[in-house]
C-alpha cells in the first residue's frame, strides 16, 4: 500500500484554507516576542540579551505544559471527524482541567531563575534583569495555558476567525503597553525590561479572555454544562499519557536551543544578543511551517476519525509540499540578506557583525526544520506522539548538542560552531521523522479514543 499520495488541487486548497489562518496565528504569537525584542534592543545590548534570556527560560520551563495540551489535537480532531460531539466536549473540559493542574508547577519553576542562570554561567550584568523578567512572566502562565486549550479546540473545529482576531488584538495591546511601560510614556515610570514582561503578561490574559469572549458561540456547547466524569483520573491520565511525550519533545527541542543559547552567553553579551537576533529571524520563518503542521494535525486527524486513510495520505502530502516549499524560499531570503535583517534589530556594530555570520547558517537548516515540524504535525494527527520525542533525544541531544560543543569550544569555531551543531541535529531529526511518516501511512491507523483508552501504539 502506498505511504504518501500526491495531493490533488482540492487537497492543497483544503489544507491552505485551514493552514493560512493558523500561519497568521503562529506569526502573531511570534510577533509579540519580536516587538519585545526590537523595543528593548534599542535600550542596550544588555537589555536585548536579558529579554532573550528571560524568554528562553520561560519557554524552557513552560514548554512541557504547552506540549501536553497539544494532545487535544488528535483527540478533538478525530472526534470531530467521527461526528461525536460529546467526545469533543469531554476532551475540551479535560484539557482545561489539565491546564489548571500544570499551571502551578510551571509558575513555581520560573521563580528560581536567578540561581539557575548564575549556575549556567550567564553574563553577570544580564542575570538580574532576565531573572526578574521570568518571575514577572509567571503571572501570565494560567492565561497562556487556557488560551492553548481554547485555541486547539477551535482549530480542530475549523473555527479560525476568533483566533486570528484575538491575536491581532493581543499584539496591539502588547505593542502599546511596551511603548508605555518600557520607555515611560503617558506618565508611566520607565520600567525597561520589566515593562516588557508586564506587557507580555497582560497580553497573554487578553489572548485567553478575548478568545473566550469572541468565540463563546462556538465554545459554549463544549463548555456548558460541565460533563460528568471530567475529573475522573483514568481518562485524565490517558490524556496526559498521550500529551506527555509531546511535552517532553517540546522540552527537548526548546532545551537544546536553550542550552546553545546558554553556551552562547559564555562567549559574552554581544554573542548572546547576536544569537537572539538570528534565532528570532529563523523563528519567524519557522512559524509558517508550524502553522502548516497544526493544519496537518487537524486535517489528518479528521481523516482518521472518518476512517479515510487515503484522505490522510493526501493531506500529509499537501502539508509537506506547502511547509517545505515555503522554507526553501525562506532559506534563500536569509542567505541573501543577513546584513539588512540584522540591522532591523539593533545598531550595535559587534552584534550586527556576528549576527551576519549566524543568519546564513540559519538559512541552511530551514528546509530540514520545515520537514521535521510538518512531519510532527502529521504524526500527531495520526496519534503517534512518542516518535518525535525519541528522535529529539537521538538527533538533538545525542548528536547535535555534542557536535555544537565540539565545534564551538574544542575546535574554536565559537558561536558559529554552536549553530552548525544545531544544523546536524535538524538534518537527522527531519530525515528520520519523514521516514516515520511514510511508515505509518503505509498501513491502516486506528482512531484514538480516550474514553476507552485505545491509545495509538
Write structural notes for this entry.
This protein is an all-alpha fold. It has one domain (9-452). 82% of the residues lie in helices and 0% in strands. It has helices at 9-41, 45-69, 72-82, 85-109, 113-119, 127-137, 141-157, 161-183, 193-214, 216-223, 233-266, 269-305, 309-336, 338-345, 349-364, 366-382, 386-410, 414-441. It is globular, with a radius of gyration of 21 Å.
Keywords:
457 residues, single chain
SSE run = HHHHHHHHHHHHHHHHHH
Spatial separation of the terminal alpha carbons: 20 Å
**What structural class do the secondary elements suggest?**
mainly alpha
Runs in which pLDDT lies below 50 for 5 or more consecutive residues are 453-457
Q: Main beta sheet, described?
A: none
Total separate domains: 1
Helix content bin: over 70%
Strand residue content: under 5%
Shape: globular
Amino acid at each position: 500500500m502506498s505511504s504518501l499520495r500526491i495531493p490533488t488541487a482540492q487537497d492543497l486548497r483544503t489544507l491552505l484554507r485551514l493552514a493560512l489562518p493558523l500561519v497568521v496565528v503562529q506569526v502573531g504569537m511570534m510577533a509579540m516576542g519580536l516587538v519585545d525584542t526590537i523595543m528593548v534592543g534599542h535600550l542596550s545590548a544588555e537589555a536585548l540579551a536579558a529579554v532573550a534570556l528571560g524568554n528562553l527560560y520561560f519557554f524552557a520551563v513552560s514548554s512541557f505544559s504547552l506540549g501536553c495540551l497539544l494532545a487535544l489535537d488528535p483527540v478533538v480532531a478525530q472526534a470531530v471527524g467521527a461526528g461525536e460531539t460529546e467526545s469533543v466536549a469531554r476532551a475540551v473540559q479535560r484539557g482545561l482541567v489539565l491546564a489548571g493542574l500544570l499551571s502551578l508547577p510551571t509558575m513555581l519553576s520560573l521563580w528560581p531563575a536567578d540561581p539557575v542562570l548564575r549556575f549556567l554561567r550567564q553574563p553577570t550584568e544580564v542575570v538580574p534583569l532576565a531573572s526578574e523578567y521570568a518571575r514577572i512572566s509567571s503571572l501570565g502562565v494560567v492565561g497562556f495555558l487556557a488560551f492553548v486549550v481554547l485555541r486547539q479546540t477551535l482549530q480542530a473545529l475549523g473555527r479560525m476567525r476568533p483566533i486570528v482576531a484575538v491575536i491581532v488584538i493581543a499584539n496591539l495591546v502588547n505593542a502599546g503597553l511596551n511603548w508605555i511601560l518600557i520607555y515611560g510614556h503617558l506618565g508611566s515610570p520607565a520600567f525597561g525590561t520589566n515593562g516588557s514582561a508586564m506587557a507580555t503578561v497582560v497580553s497573554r490574559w487578553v489572548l485567553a479572555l478575548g478568545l473566550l469572549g469572541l468565540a463563546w458561540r462556538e465554545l459554549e456547547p463544549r463548555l456548558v454544562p460541565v460533563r460528568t466524569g471530567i475529573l475522573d483520573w483514568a481518562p485524565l491520565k490517558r490524556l496526559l499519557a498521550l500529551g506527555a511525550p509531546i511535552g517532553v519533545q517540546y522540552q527537548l527541542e526548546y532545551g537544546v536551543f536553550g542550552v546553545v543559547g546558554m553556551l552562547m552567553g559564555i562567549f559574552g553579551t554581544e554573542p548572546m544578543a547576536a544569537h537572539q537576533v538570528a534565532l528570532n529571524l529563523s523563528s519567524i520563518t519557522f512559524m509558517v511551517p508550524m502553522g502548516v503542521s497544526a493544519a496537518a494535525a487537524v486535517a489528518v486527524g479528521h481523516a482518521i476519525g472518518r476512517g479515510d486513510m487515503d484522505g490522510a495520505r493526501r493531506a500529509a502530502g499537501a502539508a509537506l509540499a506547502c511547509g517545505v516549499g515555503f522554507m526553501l524560499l525562506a532559506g534563500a531570503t536569509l542567505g541573501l540578506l543577513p546584513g539588512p535583517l540584522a540591522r532591523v534589530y539593533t545598531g550595535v556594530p559587534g552584534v550586527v557583525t556576528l549576527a551576519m555570520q549566524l543568519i546564513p547558517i540559519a538559512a541552511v537548516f530551514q528546509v530540514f526544520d520545515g520537514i521535521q515540524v510538518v512531519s510532527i504535525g502529521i504524526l500527531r494527527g495520526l496519534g503517534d506522539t512518542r516518535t518525535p520525542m525519541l528522535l529529539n533525544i537521538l538527533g538533538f541531544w545525542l548528536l547535535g548538542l555534542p557536535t555544537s560543543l565540539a565545534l564551538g569550544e574544542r575546535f574554536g569555531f565559537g558561536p558559529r560552531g554552536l549553530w552548525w551543531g544545531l544544523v546536524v541535529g535538524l538534518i537527522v531529526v527531519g530525515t528520520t521523522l519523514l521516514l516515520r511518516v511514510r511508515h505509518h501511512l503505509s498501513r491502516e491507523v486506528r482512531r484514538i479514543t480516550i474514553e476507552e483508552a485505545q491509545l495509538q501504539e
